[in-house]
Amino acid sequence: MSGILSMILAGGEGTRLFPFTSLRAKPAVPFGGGYRIIDFVLNNFVNSDLLQIFVLTQFKSHSLMKHLSQAWQITGLTGRFIDPIPAQMRTGKHWYKGTADAIYQNLNLIDSYEPEVVCVFGGDHIYKMEIRQMIDYHQRKGAELTVAAIPVPVEKARHFGIIEIDENGRMIGFEEKPKHHPKTMPNRSTHVLASMGNYVFDSDTLVNYLQLDAENDTSNHDFGQNIIPMMIPGKKVYVYDFSTNEIRGEPENSKGYWRDVGTLDAYYKANMDLISVTPPFDLYNKHWPLRSYTPSVPPAKFIHDGENRTGHAINSAVAAGCIISGSVVKQSILGHRVHVHSHTIIEQSVVMGDTDIGKNCRIKRVIFDQEVVVADGTVIGEDPEFDRHRFQVSENGIVVIPKGARVGFN
Question: N or C of the chain: less Cβ packing under 10 Å?
Protein backbone atom coordinates (compact mmCIF):
# COMPACT_ATOMS: atom_id res chain seq x y z
CA MET A 1 0.00 0.00 0.00
CA SER A 2 2.01 2.92 -1.29
CA GLY A 3 1.34 6.42 -0.07
CA ILE A 4 1.00 5.42 3.59
CA LEU A 5 3.37 6.77 6.22
CA SER A 6 3.22 5.56 9.84
CA MET A 7 4.32 7.53 12.90
CA ILE A 8 4.44 5.88 16.33
CA LEU A 9 4.42 8.08 19.42
CA ALA A 10 6.89 6.46 21.80
CA GLY A 11 8.10 9.35 23.91
CA GLY A 12 5.90 9.10 27.00
CA GLU A 13 7.38 9.19 30.50
CA GLY A 14 4.98 6.58 31.88
CA THR A 15 5.08 7.98 35.41
CA ARG A 16 2.33 5.63 36.65
CA LEU A 17 4.57 2.66 35.81
CA PHE A 18 7.32 3.85 38.14
CA PRO A 19 9.80 2.37 39.09
CA PHE A 20 9.96 0.49 35.78
CA THR A 21 10.10 3.83 33.96
CA SER A 22 12.72 5.39 36.24
CA LEU A 23 15.46 4.47 33.77
CA ARG A 24 13.56 3.86 30.52
CA ALA A 25 10.61 5.13 28.49
CA LYS A 26 7.32 3.29 28.95
CA PRO A 27 7.40 1.65 25.47
CA ALA A 28 10.77 0.09 26.40
CA VAL A 29 9.47 -1.67 29.52
CA PRO A 30 9.87 -5.47 29.20
CA PHE A 31 6.62 -7.40 28.86
CA GLY A 32 5.50 -11.00 28.48
CA GLY A 33 8.82 -12.72 29.09
CA GLY A 34 10.61 -11.82 25.87
CA TYR A 35 9.18 -8.58 24.52
CA ARG A 36 9.09 -4.82 25.06
CA ILE A 37 5.80 -2.93 25.05
CA ILE A 38 6.77 -1.17 21.79
CA ASP A 39 7.01 -4.53 20.01
CA PHE A 40 3.25 -5.02 19.82
CA VAL A 41 2.41 -1.93 17.80
CA LEU A 42 5.45 -2.52 15.59
CA ASN A 43 4.31 -6.10 14.93
CA ASN A 44 0.88 -4.73 13.99
CA PHE A 45 2.42 -2.54 11.30
CA VAL A 46 4.89 -5.13 10.03
CA ASN A 47 2.28 -7.90 9.91
CA SER A 48 0.00 -5.47 8.04
CA ASP A 49 2.80 -4.93 5.48
CA LEU A 50 3.11 -1.25 6.35
CA LEU A 51 6.83 -0.70 6.37
CA GLN A 52 7.45 3.04 6.27
CA ILE A 53 7.56 3.73 10.00
CA PHE A 54 8.98 6.51 12.12
CA VAL A 55 9.19 5.96 15.88
CA LEU A 56 9.20 9.30 17.72
CA THR A 57 11.13 9.08 20.98
CA GLN A 58 11.75 11.59 23.76
CA PHE A 59 12.22 10.86 27.49
CA LYS A 60 14.84 8.34 28.68
CA SER A 61 15.13 6.93 25.19
CA HIS A 62 18.45 5.06 25.37
CA SER A 63 16.95 1.67 26.26
CA LEU A 64 14.27 2.06 23.59
CA MET A 65 16.76 3.14 20.90
CA LYS A 66 19.00 0.21 21.74
CA HIS A 67 16.09 -2.22 21.47
CA LEU A 68 14.98 -0.79 18.13
CA SER A 69 18.51 -1.10 16.74
CA GLN A 70 18.74 -4.74 17.88
CA ALA A 71 15.26 -5.97 16.98
CA TRP A 72 13.80 -3.78 14.24
CA GLN A 73 16.39 -3.14 11.55
CA ILE A 74 15.15 -3.34 7.95
CA THR A 75 18.00 -3.36 5.48
CA GLY A 76 18.32 -3.87 1.74
CA LEU A 77 14.69 -3.03 0.86
CA THR A 78 14.25 0.29 -0.92
CA GLY A 79 11.56 2.48 0.62
CA ARG A 80 11.08 0.28 3.69
CA PHE A 81 12.30 1.40 7.08
CA ILE A 82 11.67 1.56 10.81
CA ASP A 83 13.51 4.68 11.91
CA PRO A 84 13.71 6.02 15.47
CA ILE A 85 13.51 9.81 15.54
CA PRO A 86 14.75 11.49 18.74
CA ALA A 87 13.24 14.82 19.75
CA GLN A 88 15.22 17.41 17.77
CA MET A 89 13.58 20.67 18.92
CA ARG A 90 13.16 21.76 15.32
CA THR A 91 10.55 24.42 16.19
CA GLY A 92 12.16 25.84 19.34
CA LYS A 93 14.09 24.89 22.43
CA HIS A 94 11.42 22.73 24.03
CA TRP A 95 10.37 19.10 24.28
CA TYR A 96 7.17 17.93 22.62
CA LYS A 97 4.35 19.89 24.24
CA GLY A 98 1.77 17.22 23.41
CA THR A 99 0.97 14.42 20.98
CA ALA A 100 0.05 16.84 18.18
CA ASP A 101 3.19 18.90 18.74
CA ALA A 102 5.28 15.73 18.42
CA ILE A 103 4.00 15.27 14.87
CA TYR A 104 4.15 19.01 14.14
CA GLN A 105 7.83 19.14 15.06
CA ASN A 106 8.43 16.37 12.52
CA LEU A 107 6.39 17.70 9.61
CA ASN A 108 9.59 17.62 7.55
CA LEU A 109 9.29 13.82 7.52
CA ILE A 110 5.78 14.01 6.08
CA ASP A 111 6.91 16.60 3.53
CA SER A 112 9.77 14.33 2.43
CA TYR A 113 7.53 11.33 1.67
CA GLU A 114 4.39 13.13 0.45
CA PRO A 115 2.02 10.35 1.63
CA GLU A 116 -1.71 10.29 0.95
CA VAL A 117 -2.43 8.83 4.39
CA VAL A 118 -0.62 9.18 7.71
CA CYS A 119 -1.18 6.68 10.54
CA VAL A 120 -0.49 8.14 13.99
CA PHE A 121 -0.47 5.40 16.64
CA GLY A 122 0.55 5.19 20.28
CA GLY A 123 3.49 3.00 21.23
CA ASP A 124 2.44 1.69 24.61
CA HIS A 125 -0.58 -0.63 24.33
CA ILE A 126 -0.96 -4.41 24.10
CA TYR A 127 -3.18 -5.56 21.22
CA LYS A 128 -3.22 -7.04 17.72
CA MET A 129 -4.61 -5.09 14.79
CA GLU A 130 -4.52 -5.62 11.05
CA ILE A 131 -4.17 -1.92 10.30
CA ARG A 132 -4.98 -2.11 6.57
CA GLN A 133 -8.59 -2.87 7.53
CA MET A 134 -8.81 0.45 9.37
CA ILE A 135 -7.23 2.24 6.40
CA ASP A 136 -9.71 0.58 4.02
CA TYR A 137 -12.58 1.78 6.22
CA HIS A 138 -11.10 5.29 6.27
CA GLN A 139 -10.91 5.37 2.48
CA ARG A 140 -14.39 3.86 1.93
CA LYS A 141 -15.89 6.57 4.10
CA GLY A 142 -13.95 9.31 2.34
CA ALA A 143 -12.81 10.33 5.83
CA GLU A 144 -10.29 13.00 6.64
CA LEU A 145 -9.67 11.46 10.07
CA THR A 146 -10.58 8.01 11.41
CA VAL A 147 -10.22 7.18 15.10
CA ALA A 148 -10.08 3.58 16.36
CA ALA A 149 -12.38 2.96 19.31
CA ILE A 150 -13.48 0.32 21.82
CA PRO A 151 -16.24 0.13 24.46
CA VAL A 152 -15.01 0.49 28.05
CA PRO A 153 -16.96 0.47 31.34
CA VAL A 154 -18.35 3.89 32.21
CA GLU A 155 -16.42 4.02 35.48
CA LYS A 156 -13.17 4.07 33.48
CA ALA A 157 -14.25 6.93 31.22
CA ARG A 158 -12.04 9.47 33.01
CA HIS A 159 -8.95 7.75 31.59
CA PHE A 160 -9.96 8.03 27.91
CA GLY A 161 -11.19 10.31 25.19
CA ILE A 162 -14.92 9.59 24.97
CA ILE A 163 -16.63 9.55 21.58
CA GLU A 164 -20.18 10.19 20.43
CA ILE A 165 -21.20 8.93 16.96
CA ASP A 166 -24.22 9.03 14.67
CA GLU A 167 -25.88 6.02 13.02
CA ASN A 168 -23.34 6.12 10.14
CA GLY A 169 -20.26 5.96 12.35
CA ARG A 170 -19.43 9.63 11.99
CA MET A 171 -18.10 11.35 15.10
CA ILE A 172 -20.41 14.07 16.39
CA GLY A 173 -18.90 14.59 19.85
CA PHE A 174 -15.65 14.08 21.71
CA GLU A 175 -14.60 14.77 25.29
CA GLU A 176 -11.09 14.12 26.56
CA LYS A 177 -11.00 12.31 29.94
CA PRO A 178 -14.35 13.55 31.29
CA LYS A 179 -14.58 13.75 35.08
CA HIS A 180 -18.37 13.80 35.30
CA HIS A 181 -21.31 12.38 33.32
CA PRO A 182 -19.58 10.97 30.22
CA LYS A 183 -21.70 10.22 27.17
CA THR A 184 -22.63 6.53 27.25
CA MET A 185 -23.19 4.32 24.22
CA PRO A 186 -26.68 4.13 22.67
CA ASN A 187 -28.59 1.19 24.20
CA ARG A 188 -25.60 0.38 26.44
CA SER A 189 -25.65 2.73 29.41
CA THR A 190 -22.93 0.79 31.28
CA HIS A 191 -20.27 1.56 28.66
CA VAL A 192 -18.71 4.48 26.82
CA LEU A 193 -17.00 4.49 23.42
CA ALA A 194 -13.33 5.24 24.05
CA SER A 195 -10.59 6.36 21.70
CA MET A 196 -7.62 3.98 21.47
CA GLY A 197 -5.30 6.85 20.53
CA ASN A 198 -4.82 5.38 17.04
CA TYR A 199 -5.55 7.73 14.12
CA VAL A 200 -5.61 7.52 10.34
CA PHE A 201 -5.41 10.97 8.73
CA ASP A 202 -5.72 12.34 5.25
CA SER A 203 -2.22 13.77 4.95
CA ASP A 204 -3.14 17.27 3.77
CA THR A 205 -5.78 17.61 6.50
CA LEU A 206 -3.32 16.53 9.18
CA VAL A 207 -0.71 19.07 8.09
CA ASN A 208 -3.25 21.91 7.88
CA TYR A 209 -4.69 21.29 11.34
CA LEU A 210 -1.28 20.85 12.96
CA GLN A 211 -0.25 24.22 11.59
CA LEU A 212 -3.46 25.84 12.85
CA ASP A 213 -2.95 24.29 16.27
CA ALA A 214 0.69 25.41 16.44
CA GLU A 215 -0.42 29.02 15.94
CA ASN A 216 -2.76 28.82 18.95
CA ASP A 217 -0.84 29.77 22.08
CA THR A 218 -3.66 28.58 24.35
CA SER A 219 -3.67 25.03 22.93
CA ASN A 220 -2.28 21.98 24.73
CA HIS A 221 -1.18 20.76 21.29
CA ASP A 222 -2.80 17.37 21.88
CA PHE A 223 -4.82 15.26 19.44
CA GLY A 224 -7.50 14.38 21.97
CA GLN A 225 -7.84 17.78 23.62
CA ASN A 226 -7.39 20.00 20.59
CA ILE A 227 -7.12 18.51 17.10
CA ILE A 228 -10.12 16.17 17.19
CA PRO A 229 -12.58 18.67 18.74
CA MET A 230 -11.42 21.28 16.22
CA MET A 231 -12.08 18.92 13.28
CA ILE A 232 -15.48 17.51 14.28
CA PRO A 233 -17.70 20.45 13.18
CA GLY A 234 -16.49 20.81 9.62
CA LYS A 235 -14.52 17.71 8.67
CA LYS A 236 -15.34 14.07 7.94
CA VAL A 237 -14.27 12.39 11.18
CA TYR A 238 -15.24 8.72 11.42
CA VAL A 239 -14.86 6.02 14.06
CA TYR A 240 -13.44 2.56 13.35
CA ASP A 241 -14.86 -0.23 15.49
CA PHE A 242 -11.80 -2.16 16.63
CA SER A 243 -13.91 -5.20 17.55
CA THR A 244 -14.57 -5.81 13.82
CA ASN A 245 -10.85 -6.27 13.08
CA GLU A 246 -10.13 -9.78 11.77
CA ILE A 247 -6.83 -11.62 12.15
CA ARG A 248 -6.32 -15.08 10.72
CA GLY A 249 -5.80 -17.78 13.34
CA GLU A 250 -7.02 -15.73 16.31
CA PRO A 251 -9.37 -17.38 18.83
CA GLU A 252 -12.83 -15.88 19.22
CA ASN A 253 -12.15 -14.73 22.80
CA SER A 254 -9.40 -12.42 21.54
CA LYS A 255 -11.80 -10.15 19.60
CA GLY A 256 -11.38 -6.56 20.72
CA TYR A 257 -8.54 -7.29 23.17
CA TRP A 258 -6.68 -4.03 23.89
CA ARG A 259 -4.91 -3.13 27.10
CA ASP A 260 -3.48 0.15 28.30
CA VAL A 261 -0.70 -1.06 30.61
CA GLY A 262 -0.15 2.38 32.07
CA THR A 263 -0.45 1.35 35.73
CA LEU A 264 1.32 -1.32 37.75
CA ASP A 265 -1.88 -3.31 38.25
CA ALA A 266 -2.87 -3.09 34.58
CA TYR A 267 0.64 -4.19 33.59
CA TYR A 268 0.47 -7.15 35.99
CA LYS A 269 -2.99 -8.25 34.82
CA ALA A 270 -2.04 -8.07 31.14
CA ASN A 271 0.97 -10.30 31.83
CA MET A 272 -1.24 -12.79 33.67
CA ASP A 273 -3.63 -12.83 30.68
CA LEU A 274 -0.86 -14.39 28.59
CA ILE A 275 -0.62 -17.57 30.67
CA SER A 276 -4.29 -18.45 31.06
CA VAL A 277 -5.35 -21.76 29.49
CA THR A 278 -7.14 -19.98 26.64
CA PRO A 279 -5.42 -16.59 26.65
CA PRO A 280 -7.30 -13.58 25.28
CA PHE A 281 -3.96 -12.46 23.85
CA ASP A 282 -2.34 -15.43 22.09
CA LEU A 283 1.43 -15.39 21.67
CA TYR A 284 1.37 -18.59 19.62
CA ASN A 285 -0.60 -17.69 16.47
CA LYS A 286 1.73 -18.71 13.64
CA HIS A 287 -0.16 -16.43 11.24
CA TRP A 288 0.66 -13.37 13.37
CA PRO A 289 4.31 -13.69 14.42
CA LEU A 290 5.43 -11.52 17.32
CA ARG A 291 8.98 -10.39 16.70
CA SER A 292 11.40 -8.98 19.23
CA TYR A 293 15.07 -9.06 20.09
CA THR A 294 16.19 -12.49 21.31
CA PRO A 295 19.58 -12.61 23.04
CA SER A 296 22.05 -15.40 22.28
CA VAL A 297 21.20 -17.65 25.21
CA PRO A 298 20.72 -21.43 25.56
CA PRO A 299 17.33 -23.11 25.98
CA ALA A 300 15.57 -23.01 29.34
CA LYS A 301 16.67 -25.84 31.64
CA PHE A 302 14.76 -27.66 34.39
CA ILE A 303 16.98 -29.70 36.67
CA HIS A 304 16.76 -32.06 39.69
CA ASP A 305 14.08 -34.66 40.27
CA GLY A 306 14.24 -35.77 43.88
CA GLU A 307 11.97 -35.79 46.88
CA ASN A 308 10.85 -32.19 47.56
CA ARG A 309 13.40 -30.99 45.02
CA THR A 310 12.05 -31.11 41.48
CA GLY A 311 12.57 -28.33 38.99
CA HIS A 312 9.31 -27.61 37.16
CA ALA A 313 6.96 -24.88 35.95
CA ILE A 314 3.15 -25.07 35.82
CA ASN A 315 0.80 -22.74 33.90
CA SER A 316 3.79 -20.51 33.28
CA ALA A 317 5.87 -19.02 30.47
CA VAL A 318 9.64 -19.44 30.78
CA ALA A 319 12.00 -17.70 28.37
CA ALA A 320 15.28 -19.02 27.00
CA GLY A 321 18.33 -18.89 29.25
CA CYS A 322 16.39 -19.69 32.44
CA ILE A 323 17.45 -22.38 34.90
CA ILE A 324 14.76 -23.82 37.18
CA SER A 325 16.94 -25.72 39.62
CA GLY A 326 15.02 -27.94 42.02
CA SER A 327 12.38 -25.23 42.40
CA VAL A 328 8.73 -24.64 41.50
CA VAL A 329 7.32 -21.90 39.25
CA LYS A 330 3.53 -21.58 39.18
CA GLN A 331 1.37 -19.21 37.11
CA SER A 332 4.30 -16.90 36.44
CA ILE A 333 6.27 -15.35 33.59
CA LEU A 334 10.07 -15.49 33.53
CA GLY A 335 12.08 -13.42 31.07
CA HIS A 336 15.50 -14.34 29.70
CA ARG A 337 18.24 -15.58 32.05
CA VAL A 338 16.41 -16.11 35.32
CA HIS A 339 18.00 -18.58 37.75
CA VAL A 340 15.68 -19.98 40.44
CA HIS A 341 17.54 -22.03 43.04
CA SER A 342 16.48 -25.13 44.98
CA HIS A 343 13.43 -25.30 47.25
CA THR A 344 12.16 -21.91 46.10
CA ILE A 345 8.51 -21.41 45.13
CA ILE A 346 7.45 -18.58 42.79
CA GLU A 347 3.73 -18.01 42.26
CA GLN A 348 1.67 -15.51 40.24
CA SER A 349 4.71 -13.36 39.55
CA VAL A 350 6.48 -11.59 36.69
CA VAL A 351 10.28 -11.69 36.50
CA MET A 352 11.52 -9.48 33.65
CA GLY A 353 14.91 -11.16 33.28
CA ASP A 354 18.59 -11.38 34.25
CA THR A 355 17.63 -12.17 37.83
CA ASP A 356 18.95 -14.61 40.42
CA ILE A 357 16.54 -15.90 43.08
CA GLY A 358 18.19 -17.80 45.93
CA LYS A 359 17.32 -21.00 47.78
CA ASN A 360 14.34 -21.55 50.08
CA CYS A 361 12.49 -18.42 48.95
CA ARG A 362 8.70 -17.98 48.82
CA ILE A 363 7.62 -15.40 46.27
CA LYS A 364 3.98 -14.56 45.45
CA ARG A 365 2.38 -11.74 43.42
CA VAL A 366 5.60 -9.86 42.75
CA ILE A 367 6.94 -8.02 39.69
CA PHE A 368 10.74 -8.03 39.47
CA ASP A 369 12.48 -5.63 37.11
CA GLN A 370 15.73 -6.82 35.52
CA GLU A 371 19.07 -7.55 37.20
CA VAL A 372 17.65 -8.29 40.65
CA VAL A 373 19.39 -10.57 43.17
CA VAL A 374 17.27 -12.20 45.88
CA ALA A 375 18.93 -13.66 48.99
CA ASP A 376 18.32 -17.19 50.25
CA GLY A 377 15.25 -17.54 52.44
CA THR A 378 13.52 -14.36 51.27
CA VAL A 379 9.72 -14.30 51.67
CA ILE A 380 7.61 -11.78 49.71
CA GLY A 381 3.85 -11.73 49.29
CA GLU A 382 2.69 -13.38 52.52
CA ASP A 383 2.54 -10.40 54.90
CA PRO A 384 1.11 -7.29 53.19
CA GLU A 385 1.99 -4.88 56.01
CA PHE A 386 5.57 -6.12 56.24
CA ASP A 387 5.88 -5.87 52.43
CA ARG A 388 4.67 -2.26 52.43
CA HIS A 389 7.39 -1.32 54.90
CA ARG A 390 10.07 -2.83 52.65
CA PHE A 391 8.83 -2.37 49.09
CA GLN A 392 6.59 -0.39 46.79
CA VAL A 393 3.17 -2.10 46.59
CA SER A 394 0.43 -1.39 44.04
CA GLU A 395 -3.21 -0.59 44.85
CA ASN A 396 -4.11 -4.26 44.34
CA GLY A 397 -1.28 -5.54 46.50
CA ILE A 398 1.32 -6.41 43.86
CA VAL A 399 4.86 -6.01 45.25
CA VAL A 400 7.22 -4.16 42.92
CA ILE A 401 11.00 -4.64 42.92
CA PRO A 402 13.06 -2.06 40.95
CA LYS A 403 15.87 -2.74 38.51
CA GLY A 404 19.17 -3.82 40.05
CA ALA A 405 17.77 -4.30 43.57
CA ARG A 406 19.43 -6.61 46.08
CA VAL A 407 16.62 -8.08 48.14
CA GLY A 408 16.92 -9.77 51.52
CA PHE A 409 20.56 -8.96 52.16
CA ASN A 410 21.55 -7.29 55.45
Answer: C
Q: Report how far residue 256's alpha carbon sits from residue 127's, in angstroms, rounded to the nearest whole number.
A: 8
Looking at residue 185, what DSSP letter applies?
B
Is residue 305 a part of any domain in this protein? yes
Q: Considering the domain boundaries, does residue 289 fall inside one?
A: no
Of 273, 291, 319, the residue at which a domain comes to its end is 273
Rounded CA separation 270/292 (Å): 18
Q: Total domain count for the chain?
A: 2
> What residues contact residue 208 under an 8 Å CB cut-off, 6+ apart?
none
Strands 379-380 and 161-165: unpaired
Nearest in space to 278 (alpha carbons), one of 314, 250, 239: 250
What is the extent of the structural domain holding 359?
A: 301-407
- The lowest-confidence range among 42-46, 215-219, 332-336, 397-401 is 215-219
**Contact between 262 and 37 (Cβ < 8 Å):** no
Rounded to 10 degrees, the C-alpha dihedral 58/262/155/187 comes to 80
pLDDT digits (tens, 9 = 90+) for 58-107: 777 788 889 988 999 887 677 888 988 887 655 556 667 788 989 998 89
DSSP annotation of 26 = G
Give the separation between CA 389 and CA 247, rounded to whole angstroms: 46
Alpha-carbon distances, residue 350 vs 98, 224, 332, 377 (angstroms): 32, 33, 6, 19
Residues 344 and 389 in one domain: yes
Residue 163 CA to residue 185 CA, distance in Å, equals 9
> What is d(CA 315, CA 305) in angstroms, rounded to the nearest whole number?
19
